[in-house]
Design a protein that fits this description.
Chain A: This is PCI domain-containing protein. The complex is a heterodimer. By secondary structure, chain A is mostly helical. Helix content of chain A is 65%, strand content 2%. Chain A has 26 helices and 3 strands. Chain B is elongated, with a radius of gyration of 32 Å. The termini of chain B are far apart. The chains are: A mainly alpha, B mainly alpha.
């Protein structure tokens, strides 16, 4: 118990914001696991005020002036009430009675702590170094809101079953399901506004909390599935004049990575893939991860998250597929993306569809399904390229002089039928390619080729009179043709594609 | 001498009830044969409704007849048409169950109506609450002054009777509601009586013993949602600026007939403005009475279909939004059809995030439905730019899909043209284009085989392609695709820009 006060005193003396934050944290520090329990036992509601006042105002170790002490009094009073509710809830949970754990009250009491802290800032009682306290209140507010909502949903379901109501959808409408979380979102918005409106000079400003709070808002809004609100946050941050807000790079790395990740995802969802790629890449590179560092499991998860969005983005912007080495670092990613990547590389349509369907739910949940679908275009391009390659070379120009090395030129006039055959082999559904009588729907194949050309994956033109497509070879690097023989080598293939995609 | 006692002895009361001065059931009144028939019908096992037991039905019957007798409507009410007690109970329960739904849901449902340009400004969820409370307070005050004691005693007795019956059914959660009711017991009974008489409504909406998961403040006892009395089959639509009078609102039975009437008239006359007007007023009546049942679903579906036919996307969108909420209430209806429409509509608006959400909401059962599968195939085809497949699907669209697809077919044709121009050199035959772009005339009209190509020609010219059309000597018409790239690329870009969509490159 004393540890809390000594920490507090130390924090005040050394202006250590993070340490200060731990004193009002719902989670006891590792060095003092029974802290909350002890704190709760240390006093009772009757003598709460006097005990606290003794500790805060008349403490020889602390040098707080009266007003500040009063503020802390409020905060610790709220904190005390909070520990009561938290301990009750945790007890219920530990005693295998999770339904009785009243997280709702926990949330409300924590909200009181939050209000007390906010009031402190509004009254300009706290200096900027104390902002980790805001971090703590915000972070746990969200967590408790989620817990409270989950509990409410469980309780609702219970009563529904008891009363024999079957309209679960009606009573579990999303608005009631996320009631506390919506409230939390509003509170976090309050903190955000509080930090934003700080007029003090930058050295001593609450604006340093902005990115952390913004990240908290993002997490909350994403869970609530309201991307538009997230955009508001982005906009208000961008609206800050350059002198008012420090550059993102000046903020702690953790804030930066998270922020870049979320704004990258927001761009992704708004289909601004160029911007998304930029941000996600930056986040990825900055993310604290090294393959050898196996102790930090949390950072690996962050990296996975970033990659979950970065891979589809790259697929779309540059037609690049993730290497096996990259995917193998995380079993999750391998499971998700490896089949698709493989299918695209080997231009196997049926495998591609199977891979998409296998993880469809995850993809849809993450909103990357539609983007990954576009991989099909890449796949078709690869397929057509294979046909082109498999076509062999033109018979060498007649009458070439001996000794003159004529450059081998690939056959450029390819009948549409060959593409149709390739499509069939690759597993395209019969209904798509057949014309209903066992033949080939030539127009369908032409359409696919036309799209390839249109999207700049191929250069050429179709002649219906001759049922061929003429692939232009004029711009091809002859070097490329030679390399293409090494189809087996995956690495080279990547390089190859990169060259081609750049060219085209 | 014994002084007279300083008090006056009064016999102690033995019962809570004061002696009723007016009998609840006027036994002296002779029942007309209509009433008797009604009672008979109510008791018939064929008419029994599941979930409503006999005592409850009997109670309700008693109430209905009592009220009719008291308000002197025994003769005037058409008993042969009047809904049976069990039906009334079922209505009340449905209404209360839905009325007891969480407020945001209600306001969500009401919002589209409010936000539409011609939509009712009346928000039943909110202002009706206010009105009821206001009514209660107002009539509360006056009832205390005006009502003669006799009348008060009477209704108190009646209400108590009913309430004791209900006590057995109440769940724990209702204890709170009960406390609230008990507080204003006497006054409330007054209010209800007066209201009932004012509106001439005989079937009073009783507090339902069904599920109640909300706080008592949401449900004022027995003063449930508005019940209309208007019997007119046709009614024009007027935007509401204040709570409507019950005389202008049609009750459920009339609304059902009205819907049938509107549908028949539509089939005969196809007068869209009239039909739309009627349907909107129907919807309005349904909303102000908080009716959410199969009829509501049917009304919205009918209106949506008619709006689609007439390409009124504003109305269609409103109906679609409402239907989505209604389907969640599991009231039945043509979910397959309208899910498919929804997907096609989102394709039309190029709303990526909505599409994401819809896909996330689709259940595996949904995906089995052929219409939904068709819509998903359309989406897939358009996503990959496969215009060929798209035009095939266009021809096979089920239900009223073609109307929705008609909205996008123009821009898709331009997209296809852009791709074709880029790829096909030097030229293509007009027939090919007509075929690809689904310009075929109906098969039934075999005489005019050239109609399709002609329409195609019109289309090409309309977008600036006249200069590229060449007539060859053998009568074949060719389109110089190679040279037309720029024109159609521009046309395509313009078409897609209009929707604020990103080109699917």
């Amino acid at each position: 118990m004393e540890a809390l006060w000594s920490d507090f005193a130390l924090a005040q003396r050394t202006s250590d914001g993070y340490l200060l934050g731990t004193t009002i944290s719902p989670e006891p520090p590792k060095s003092d696991p029974a802290r909350l329990y002890n704190f709760h036992r240390w006093t009772n509601p009757g003598s709460l005020q006097t005990d606290l006042r003794y500790k805060l105002q008349y403490n020889p170790n602390l040098k707080l002036d009266k007003k500040e002490a009063n503020t802390w009094l409020d905060i610790f009073t709220a904190y005390y009430n909070f520990t009561t509710t938290l301990l009750a809830a945790e007890e219920a949970k530990n005693a295998q009675r999770p339904r009785e754990a009243d997280w709702s009250t926990v949330y409300e009491s924590w909200k009181n702590v939050l209000n007390a802290v906010i009031r402190a800032y509004q009254n300009e009682m706290f200096e900027a170094w104390t902002i980790p306290c805001l971090y703590i209140v915000g972070k746990y507010l969200r967590i408790f809101a989620i817990k409270a909502d989950d509990n409410a949903a469980l309780a609702q379901r219970d009563t529904d079953v008891a009363l024999g109501v079957h309209d679960e959808d009606m009573s579990n409408s999303s608005s009631s399901r996320n009631e506390k979380l919506e409230d939390a979102a509003r509170q976090i918005g309050r903190i955000f506004a509080l930090c934003l409106g700080d007029r003090s000079p930058l050295d001593d400003s609450r604006k340093w909390a902005l990115y952390y709070i913004a990240n908290l808002s993002f997490k909350t809004y994403f869970r609530l599935n309201s991307i538009s609100l997230s955009k508001n946050i982005l906009r208000s941050l961008q609206a800050q004049a350059p002198g008012e807000l420090p550059e993102l790079s000046a903020f702690p790395r953790a804030h930066q990575v998270t922020f870049k990740y979320y704004s990258g995802v927001i761009d992704f969802l708004s289909e601004d893939y160029k911007a998304a790629e930029e941000k996600l890449l930056a986040a990825y590179e900055m993310c604290l991860y090294s393959p050898t560092n196996t102790t930090t499991t949390t950072t690996s998860r962050n990296r996975d998250l970033i990659l979950t969005y970065l891979i589809p983005t790259k697929l779309l912007t540059s037609g690049l597929l993730p290497t096996i080495a990259l995917l193998s670092s995380s079993p999750n990613l391998t499971h998700l993306f490896q089949p698709i990547a493989h299918a695209i590389k080997t231009a196997n349509l049926s495998a591609f569809h199977a891979a998409l369907a296998a993880n469809e739910e995850t993809f849809i949940k993450r909103r990357i399904y539609l983007t990954l679908e576009r991989g099909r275009d890449l796949l078709l391009r690869n397929l057509f390229r294979k046909v082109f390659v498999a076509g062999g070379y033109e018979p060498s120009a007649a009458g070439a002089a001996e000794g003159v090395v004529t450059e081998k030129v690939r056959r450029t006039r390819i009948p549409i039928r060959e593409f149709a055959a390739a499509l069939r082999m690759a597993g395209m559904a019969e209904e798509e390619i057949g014309d209903g009588e066992g033949g080939v729907d030539e127009e369908g194949v032409e359409c696919l080729l036309a799209n390839c050309v249109y999207k700049n994956y191929m250069k050429g033109y179709i002649s219906r009179d001759h049922d061929l497509i003429l692939i232009s070879h004029l711009d091809d690097d002859d070097d490329d043709d030679d390399d293409v023989d090494d189809d087996k080598d995956d690495g080279k293939l990547e390089q190859q594609k990169r060259k081609m995609s750049k060219k085209w | 001498m014994q002084a007279a006692p300083a008090y006056t002895a009064v016999a102690a009361r033995h019962t809570l009830q004061r002696p009723a001065t007016i009998p609840i059931k006027p036994q002296k009144v002779s029942w007309s044969p209509n009433v008797r028939l009604y009672v008979q019908r109510a008791f018939e096992p064929d008419n029994a409704v599941q979930g409503i037991d006999l005592p409850a039905m009997q109670d309700k019957l008693k109430v209905v007849i009592t009220n009719a007798a008291e308000s002197g409507q025994l003769e005037t009410i058409d008993w042969s048409q009047y809904p049976l007690p069990q039906h009334l109970i079922k209505e009340d329960r449905d209404r209360a169950a839905v009325y007891g739904a969480h407020d945001p849901l209600l306001t969500n449902i009401n919002v589209p109506i409010m936000s539409s340009p011609a939509g009712g400004a009346y928000s039943p969820g909110l202002s009706s609450k206010k009105r009821k409370n206001g009514d209660l307070e107002m009539s509360d005050a006056e009832s205390r002054d005006i009502t003669p004691p006799g009348k008060r005693k009477n209704t108190k007795g009646g209400l108590e009777d009913r309430l004791t019956g209900k006590n057995k059914n109440q769940s724990k959660k209702e204890k709170k509601a009960e406390a609230f009711r008990a507080r204003d017991l006497g006054a409330n009974a007054e209010v209800l009586e007066k209201r009932r008489q004012r509106f001439g409504v005989v079937g009073s909406p009783e507090p339902s013993s069904f599920v109640r998961s909300r706080s008592p403040s949401l449900e004022t006892p027995s003063s449930g949602p508005l019940i209309g009395t208007c019997q007119k089959l046709e009614k024009s639509y007027f935007r509401l600026t204040a709570p409507p009078f019950p005389e202008t609102v049609r009750p459920l039975a009339v609304l059902e007939k009205a819907l049938l009437h509107i549908r028949t008239k539509w089939k005969q006359e196809h007068n869209y403005s009239y039909t739309c007007d009627q349907l909107k007023s129907l919807r309005q009546d349904l909303t102000v009475q908080h009716i959410k049942n199969e009829l509501t679903v049917k009304t919205y579906e009918v209106h949506a279909r008619i709006a689609l036919e007439k390409k009124d996307l504003g109305e269609y969108n409103q109906c679609q939004t409402q239907l989505r909420a209604l389907y969640k209430l599991k009231l039945g209806g043509k979910q397959e059809e309208f899910t498919a429409y929804r997907i096609l509509y989102i394709i039309f608006t190029c709303n990526r995030s909505d599409m994401n959400n819809v896909l996330a909401d689709l259940t595996p059962a949904d995906k089995q439905m052929p219409a939904v599968q068709h819509a998903l195939k359309v989406r897939a085809a358009l996503a990959s730019g496969n215009y060929h497949k798209f035009f095939r699907l266009y021809r096979d669209a089920p239900f009223l899909g073609p109307y929705l697809l008609d909205m996008i077919i123009d821009r898709e044709r331009l997209a296809a043209m852009a791709a074709i121009c880029r790829t096909y050199k030097p030229d293509v035959s007009l027939h090919f284009l007509a075929q690809e772009l689904a310009f075929n005339s109906d098969d039934s009209d075999g005489s005019d085989a050239d109609a399709g190509p002609r329409q195609c020609l019109d289309f090409l010219c309309h977008h600036g392609g006249e200069s590229f059309i060449e007539r060859k000597e053998d009568g074949d018409v060719r389109f110089a695709a190679g040279r037309a790239t720029a024109v159609f690329e521009g046309a395509r870009a313009a078409a897609f820009r209009g929707i604020d969509a990103k080109p699917r490159k």
